[in-house]
Amino acid sequence: MTMEFLVVVLAVALAVIIAILVVVIATMLRRGGVRQTERDDQVDALTAGLEHREELLADREARLSQGESEVRQREAELIQAEAEFTSRKDSAARAEMSRIEALEKVAGLSVEAARAELLVQAESTARLAATQLAKQIEAEAREQAERGAREVIVTAMQRVAAEQTLDAATVAVALPGEEMKGRLIGRDGRNIRSFEQVTGASLVIDDTPGMVELSCFDPLRREVARQTLTELIADGRIHPGRIEQTHAHCALSVEQGCLQTGTEAAAELGIADLDPEILEVLGALKYRTSYGQNVLAHLVESGRLAGLLAAELGLDVAACRRAAFLHDLGKALPDDGGSHALAGAEFARRHGEDVDITHAIEAHHNEVEPATVEAVLVQVADAMSGSRPGARRESTESYAKRLEGLEQIASADPGVERVFAVQAGHEVRVMVRPDQVDDAEAELLATRIAKRIEAELNYPGSIKVTVVRESRATAVAR
Question: pTM to 2 decimals?
Answer without folding.
Answer: 0.49
